[in-house]
Specification:
The longest helix is centred in the C-terminal third of the chain and has 26 residues, at 180-205. This protein folds into two domains: 15-131 and 251-276, no CATH class; 136-245, no CATH class. The chain has 278 residues and is α+β, with helices and mostly antiparallel strands. It has helices at residues 47-52, 56-60, 63-72, 84-99, 122-127, 153-175, 180-205, 220-228, 232-245, 273-276; strands spanning 18-20, 40-42, 102-108, 115-121, 136-139, 145-148, 206-210, 216-217, 253-257, 264-268. Helix content is 43%, strand content 16%. A hairpin with a 6-residue loop joins β9 and β10. The chain binds zinc ion (ZN).
């Protein structure tokens, strides 16, 4: 009979953590445990985590990544709050903790299509990350001051899922035996859903909008209503600020000298979980 309440096996399953700084520096989280030097502990993946990352359904809706981060970064109690600018750094740290500091990648030279085998040093990549210092402030043409933050991984997952679903609807529509009127109607409603999630993403990244007479609006429903009616110029202004915000974090590409032709080219670094951990 088993009378033990503590499983003696479990003392062998603890692996040492890696400590990293994250681009948000903890901003935007309701409850996050950083060390005194502002770092967060990241633990290696288990076999179960690795299997999760290979499940296409879970990957598609981002649940695999959330589940892995829940296990590997326990000091973020609510992984749905993870800021989009932190996700690559956290996944790199998970990879370092699990497989070590180096990662092999293939970079195809655009000049001669030569496939260069490159070894990426992950700690030095983390050294190059940029940090989010505070809310971005911009002013629209009618002098409304908008304060912005990056969105979360949950916002991003929702958008990717809707885009994927809508693309599927559109490609099926092509093959269907329907009259043009019906096809147009479906296509229009699909596009309007896509537009809606894009506007939602923008709304979620707006912390407040302050009118010229000093009224600060933080209500998401009010902000969304305002975002929907923005002029093209003001929309672009906010959209560009958002694009700049989400560039914070790890570099997304690196310069590589081709082994074959000697040209230097810019190669993307892909942090997509299925390639990155595959
Ligand atoms: Zn080349």
């Amino acid at each position: 009979m088993n009378t033990q309440t503590i499983n003696p096996l479990m003392q062998f399953s603890k692996k040492p953590a890696r400590y990293i700084k994250i681009p948000s520096q903890g901003q935007g989280y309701s409850n996050l445990k950083l060390t005194d030097s502002g770092e967060i502990a990241v633990y290696p993946m288990t076999a179960k985590d690795e299997l999760m990352l290979k499940s296409p359904d879970a990957l598609l809706n981002g649940e695999a990544v959330i589940s892995v981060l829940r296990n590997c970064v326990p000091d973020v109690p609510n992984p749905r709050e993870i800021q989009i600018i932190d996700i690559d750094s956290l996944m790199v740290a998970v990879r370092m903790a699990t497989y070590g500091d180096n990662m092999d990648m293939v970079a195809t030279c655009p000049h001669d299509k030569h496939e260069n085998n490159v070894q990426l040093n992950l700690p030095s990549l983390l050294d190059q990350q940029t940090y989010w210092t505070g809310l971005t402030e911009i002013e629209t043409s009618d002098k409304i001051v908008v304060k912005m933050k990056p969105y979360t991984v949950t916002d991003q997952n929702k958008t990717s899922l809707v885009s994927f679903e809508q693309m599927t609807v559109l490609s099926q529509l092509d093959r269907q035996e329907a009259d043009t009127q019906t096809k147009l109607k479906t296509a229009n409603s699909t596009f309007s859903q896509l537009i809606d999630v894009t506007l939602e993403l923008m709304t979620n990244s707006i912390v407040s909008a302050t009118t010229p007479d000093g009224q600060e609006i933080t209500d998401k429903a009010f902000i969304k209503q305002w975002v929907v009616g923005l002029s093209k110029a003001d929309y672009d202004l906010i959209d560009n600020a958002l694009k700049d915000l989400i560039k914070i974090g790890l570099p997304k590409s690196m310069n590589i000298k081709c082994d074959n032709c000697g040209e230097i080219f810019e190669a993307p670094i892909n942090f997509n979980p299925s390639d990155f951990f595959g």
